[in-house]
Structures are given as C-alpha cells and as structure tokens.
Amino acid sequence: MSSKLVPSDPEKVMVIRRVSKNITTLSVPFFRFGHLKVGGRGTIVRLNSGALAVFSPVALTPEVKKTISALGEVKYITALDIEHHIFLGQWHQEFPDAKVMGPEGLAEKRAKSKDVENVPFSVVFSSKGDNAVDADFDSEFQYEFVSAHPNKEIVFNHIPDRTLIEADLMFNLPATEQFSKSGVSATSGWLTRFFGSLNNTRGSAIWQKRFIWYALSAKDRKGFNASVSRIDKFDFDRIIPCHGDVIESDGKGIFRKVMEWHLKASQKSSRL
Fold first, then answer.
1. How far, in Å, CA of 66 to CA of 14, rounded?
2. Reduced to 3 states, what is the DSSP secondary structure of residue 113?
C-alpha cells in the first residue's frame, strides 16, 4: 500500500469529529494517484438500537477503536463503491460478526488482488436486486445504488439526522479538514488546484456540473439521471462526502445545484 495514498501514521493526522448526536466522522489525508489532495473520510452512524454502521472505513487506529468502544457495537461495515474498500479486511478482522456490504463487482475485484484480504460480503447491492439489509438498518436508512456511476456508487441517507453519506457521487474540495493535522496545505500543488477547480461546490459549481455530466455519467446518463432523481426525493440537509469538507447545511440545495442538469433531464424524460 503506497504511502503516497495512505498516511504512514494515520493516528497522528486523523481528525475524529462528532458532527451530530449519532454521527462521527474519521477524516484523513488522501492523495489520489499519489498527487491530488482529495482527502478521505470514514463515517460512523449510531442507530437507535445502539448498533454502529461504518461507511468507507479508514485505518482502524487505537483512537478509532477507543471511539467505537464508547459508541457501541459495529454491526455493519460498508464500502460505498468499488474504490473505497482498502480497509475492509482490517475492520472485518476486528469485527467478524458485522455484516460487510458493498456494490456488485467489488468482491470479484478484491479476489483478483493479492494486496487485500478475503472478506465475505453479507449484502451485495445490485441493479437487479431489492438491496434490503435488515429491519434494524432499513428503518433508519434510505439508499440508492447508482449503478450508472463508473465506481458503482451506493448513496445512503440517514433519516433521523437528515444526512446524506456518499463517496464519489460529488466532491466538496478542498479537503481542508482532512489535511488539517498533516502540516500540508490542502490546496498546494497545481494538479490539486486544477482538480479542485473541477470538483468544488462554490458559486454555480459549473465545472463540477460539467465533470459529472460529460465524464462520470456519459456511459449511462439515463440511468444516472434516474438515480439522481431518486436521491433528490430523500429528505437531507447535511452531506458527508468522502472527498472534501462536510457540507453542514443546505445540502439539498447544493445537491440540486450540482445535479441540476440531471434533475432537469429526468423531469423531461418523465413527461415524455
């Protein structure tokens, strides 16, 4: 595992923050392709039952273990897409009774790699299945499997906290919080600044709109539009992305701004 991708000592640079009564984030530096400062983030949600659901797990450091022991018992561990799975083995080993969940194609991808551990998936989100988890989980979460996304994205909405949790559906760069303890500026380097200009939510967010429309959704825009339309029906105010800062409020408005073209296309299609 390249040190350019994952911090050599994540304990020192991880920001553990309680963003709401039920949600804790684990934010770390992360360099995409070894150069782009996009940051990484795991999210822990405490359900009404006391069970914990972990999304896009990051390094399981001693401080993370201490945080978990104070919150409850890990019952669900989810890779939000086929790229956010590096630490699944570590978490499964520590919490073997937890249900491991992920998108279709991820198990096969991991089976081909010699660098990751074998992990049994209890729930595989599929474009052909009903994607139910269990009564405890389903009573608190809405979710959409965006099979049209190149990374096979699963988006979750925690209903009690009105919080959307996603990985690569949209970014909110720069990754200020994620690099805040690293001693490195989240905006340094021309590649990072260029990528950040394409993947932020400021102003009209025109470049991220273009990036998603012309790049991410190009192969199946109709399917992408349909997923975005279903997500838009969720009731959320906060957005927790894996890359970039948490959108603490007006998340629905920002989502609609970034996904404007997809929502309009979906509405037009439904009228035909």
1. 14
2. coil
Give the residue-averaged pLDDT of 176-187.
Answer: 96
Domain extent at residue 121: 10-271
Task: Please tell me the pTM assigned to this model.
Answer: 0.95
Write out the two tokens for 117. 């551990």
Alpha helices in 75-189 (DSSP H): 88-94, 106-111, 135-138
CATH of residue 118's domain is 3.60.15.10
Edge-first strand order for the sheet with 141-146 is 141-146, 153-158, 163-165, 238-240
Residue 4 has pLDDT above 60, yes or no: no
| Statement: residue 78 has pLDDT above 70 | yes
Q: How many domains does the chain have?
A: 1
Measured at the CA of 247, the angle between CA 246 and CA 250, to 5 degrees, comes to 165
Residue 267 gets which letter from DSSP? H
pLDDT digits (tens, 9 = 90+) for 94-148: 999 999 999 999 999 999 988 888 899 999 999 887 889 999 999 999 999 999 9
**Closest C-alpha to 18, from 61, 91, 58, 68:** 68
Question: Quick check: bond before 174 cis, omega within 30?
Answer: yes
